[in-house]
Design goal:
The structure is a single chain. This protein has helices spanning 3-9, 46-50, 53-59, 94-106, 125-132, 194-209, 234-238, 254-265, 282-289, 301-304, 309-326, 342-345, 354-359, 369-384, 414-418, 462-466, 472-486, 557-560, and strands at residues 26-30, 63-66, 110-115, 145-147, 169-173, 176-179, 214-217, 273-276, 331-333, 389-393, 493-494, 502-507, 511-516, 522-523, 528-532, 540-541, 545-550. The protein is α/β, with parallel strands linked by helices and 561 residues long. The chain binds alpha-D-glucopyranose (GLC) and calcium ion (CA).
């Protein structure tokens, strides 16, 4: 047994001093309200997660990232936080959080929590105090209040628009307005204020002290702002983005904040980790991933790419170079709670306008489900072979498709409401998981589910897939087990003598991954097949398939097997 498999199988808790665990971790994102409901109220909860730790251990993930579980009115799926140091009573208690954390750790699984620092919710005590206080008061200085334009301040301070649609300023009376880059229920904090900085360091320590191993930092690129008047117009904002001096996005001084956070992370042993959700172009990403900053940043390039070999190869090359530059490891993401699931993206013709497709309830164009599944499995197996960490989103291991035909009266995403229905939003990837093949919520809970579970999700249920070795779940389990056994150095060597539609590389120890993006089979390179994303005959790599091989003459696996 190798050292790595000991780590994976341990039930005695985590090895204490491993400060590099995150570099090549498989991190499984849980959207808590849709994962597992332990008490039948229709809302997934922390005891529900605790009850599925064995499932996560069998799946073979190294860490869990929990999307927000804090008290919230759910104006934006929990990304509107009322209190950063508590648990939503509908989801659990702090004691139940500790139980979940202990159960994960006992299974050898680390825990990452989501921190939402760009904005609080409008129900946060600070915002309530701000509303009750005078313009110019210290209470208002924690947020971004401005006097409106016009004689009585009746016009917004600028024409900026919010990410979910509508204006980015909300009036509070007396000619005063506050800034919200997202929903009106998400007032932006003023990060120039030392009190705000101190508050978040306290929150980071609060969770680190409770045994949390790392943090996912929401909207990490937007905290620092330059609101010197006169404020630029929306049209001016769009010009000169990504130079480090844009008023709202990716300002250079945002990294001063993360340098302070790094000091907090390093107070712990092993140091706490962080990954930035920073929607910035690749060449700006390394700053967030620097070891003096957050340490790692999401790379969403594959999530935005179409199914195309040369495109994938270029993205991989580029991101490995960026990782070398920053000293971080790379991150690979195909799905998360904000985008159409990759099994569905790949089932649609290239260039499909996903928003328009959702608006038509997914009717036109019709997804080719079989093709989507095939490509999704191939893309997943490819990314799992890459150096760096892989972020998986709950349900992708079941091959779940996007639910595009949720009726308007169940939708929750503020995108839908703020766009007056023009955009359907992100609920279709947040539908509760089907654990069982029968019952009104397919084992998610009892009778109720906060978003309806489609009846035909029975085909994807954990119960039905556990019985089928050819299932997507079985495939993920095999791939993750092999990866854990094979993963060593963070290098990759391209195989160059391959057709243009093929992406192939070898990792240390002779671990070879070959992806055929084309529609015709290509010859299988020599070696023993370890895992394949669709059935192989031993001679060729079928169309739209990834195969992992152990190259002959290499050490390690031959003896183990
Ligand atoms: C991030 C989250 C998204 C949320 C937004 C505002 O992009 O991933 O779900 O709506 O931030 O907090
Ligand atoms: Ca519940």
């Amino acid at each position: 047994m190798t050292a790595l498999s000991v780590l994976g199988n341990t039930t005695a808790g985590l090895p204490r001093q491993d400060a590099t665990w995150w570099r090549q971790a498989v991190v499984y994102q849980i959207y808590p309200r849709s994962f597992a409901d332990s008490n039948g109220d229709g809302i997934g909860d922390l005891p529900g997660i605790t009850g599925k730790v064995e499932y996560l251990r069998e799946l073979g993930v190294d860490a869990v990232w929990l999307s927000p579980f804090y008290p919230s009115a759910l104006a934006d799926g929990g990304y509107d936080v009322d209190d950063y140091r508590d648990v939503d009573p509908r989801i659990g208690t702090l004691a139940q959080f500790d139980e979940m954390r202990a159960a994960l750790h006992a299974a050898g699984i680390r825990l990452i929590v989501d921190i939402v620092p760009n904005h609080t919710s409008n129900r946060h005590v600070w915002f309530q105090q701000a509303l009750a206080s005078e313009p110019g008061s210290p209470e208002r200085e924690r947020y971004v209040f401005r006097r409106g334009l016009g004689e009585h301040g009746e016009l917004p301070p600028s024409d900026w628009t919010a990410a979910f649609g509508g204006p980015a300023w909300e009036p509070v009376g007396g000619g005063e307005w506050y800034l919200h880059l997202f929903a009106p229920e998400q007032p932006d904090l003023n990060w120039a204020n030392p009190e705000v900085r101190e508050e978040f360091r306290t929150t980071l320590r609060f969770w680190a002290d409770r045994g949390v191993d790392g943090f996912r930092i929401d909207v990490a690129h937007a905290l620092a702002k330059d609101l010197t008047e006169p404020l630029p117009s929306q049209a001016d904002l769009k010009a000169d983005i990504w130079g480090g001096a844009h008023p709202l996005e990716d300002r250079d001084e945002v990294h001063d904040i993360y340098r302070e956070w790094r000091q907090v992370f390093n107070e712990y042993d092993p140091p706490r980790t962080a990954v930035a959700e920073a929607w910035v172009p690749a060449h700006r990403r390394s700053r967030y991933a620097s070891p003096e900053g957050l340490g790692q940043a999401f790379n969403f390039d594959l999530l935005e790419a179409t199914w195309d070999g040369p495109t994938f190869a270029k993205i991989i090359d580029n991101n490995l170079a960026l990782a070398r530059e920053s000293g971080a490891s790379s991150t690979w993401v195909l799905s998360n709670h904000d985008v159409v699931r990759h099994a569905t993206r790949y089932a649609l013709p290239d260039g499909t306008d996903l928003e328009a497709w959702l608006r038509h309830d997914g009717a036109e164009p019709r997804p080719d489900e079989e093709r989507g599944r095939r490509r999704a499995r191939a893309a997943t197996l490819l990314t799992l072979a890459l150096p760096g960490s892989a972020y998986l989103y709950q349900g992708e291991e079941l091959g779940l498709p996007e639910v595009a035909d949720l009726p308007a009266d169940v939708l929750q995403d503020p995108t839908f409401f703020r766009s007056q229905g023009a955009q359907k939003g992100r609920d279709g990837c947040r539908v509760p998981l089907p654990w069982a093949s029968h019952g009104p919520t397919l084992g998610f809970g009892d009778e109720l589910a906060h978003l309806p579970v489609p009846a035909d999700f029975d085909r994807f249920s954990v119960e039905s897939q556990e019985a089928d070795p050819g299932s997507t779940l079985g495939f993920y389990r095999r791939a993750l087990a092999e990866r854990r056994r094979l993963q060593t150095g963070e290098t990759l060597e391209w195989l160059t003598n391959v057709p243009a539609t093929v992406v192939a590389f070898t990792r240390p120890g002779g671990w070879t991954s070959v992806t055929n993006f084309g529609s015709e089979p290509v010859p299988l390179p020599p070696g023993r097949v370890l895992v394949a994303s669709s059935p192989v005959d031993g001679r060729s790599v079928p169309a739209e398939t990834t195969v992992w091989l152990q190259s002959s003459g290499q050490n390690g696996t031959e003896q183990d097997g």
